[in-house]
Amino acid sequence: MQEDIEIYVLSCPTEKIITWLESTFTLIDKSSPSPLCTKATIAVDNNEIEVTILEQAAGKRFTSIWFDSDKTPWEDDIACAKQAFEALNCEVRCNFQGWEEEGNQDPDQWWRINSHEEGPFIWN
User: Fold this and answer.
1) In the predicted model, is pLDDT for residue 99 greater than 80?
2) Rounded to the nearest 5 degrees, what angle is found at the Cα of 113, between the Cα atoms of 111 and 118?
3) What's the rounded Cα separation, in Å, for the pair 38 and 53?
4) Domain boundaries, the chain
């Protein structure tokens, strides 16, 4: 189980992301600390999870969705990315292996899901 889950969605409006969260989980709270940042609290199996949605997180077109909990319903970033792609129908990217402090992974190695393909690629 990962400590947290983070995915990046391409050209996907925050409101569409919130709608996905509302239809998948119980939305407890939502706020917008800044024009590009939305924070939400969702409930999953009696656990509250903080979610941060940050627009323009990677270039102008990618929005980060960060689930700050090890209690998410997904085993890893890729499982979350697959569900997000199904729900949002926009390209989703995530770290290929999950983040590890002592890992020797390539920091540019990512996983991409879009309507044309799914698989590892180098994002730089």
Assistant:
1) no
2) 80
3) 5
4) 5-122
Residue 110 near residue 96 (C-beta atoms within 8 A): yes
Stretch (H or E) spanning 113: strand 109-113
Tokens in use for 75?
């085993």
Region 5-122: CATH code: 3.30.310
First to last CA, the chain: 27
Question: What stretches of 18-79 adopt beta strand conformation (E)?
Answer: 26-34, 37-44, 47-58, 62-68
| Tens of pLDDT, residues 31-85 | 999 999 999 999 999 999 999 999 999 889 999 999 999 999 999 999 999 999 9
Instruction: Compute, in degrees rounded to 10, the torsion defined by CA atoms 4, 124, 107, 14.
Output: 0
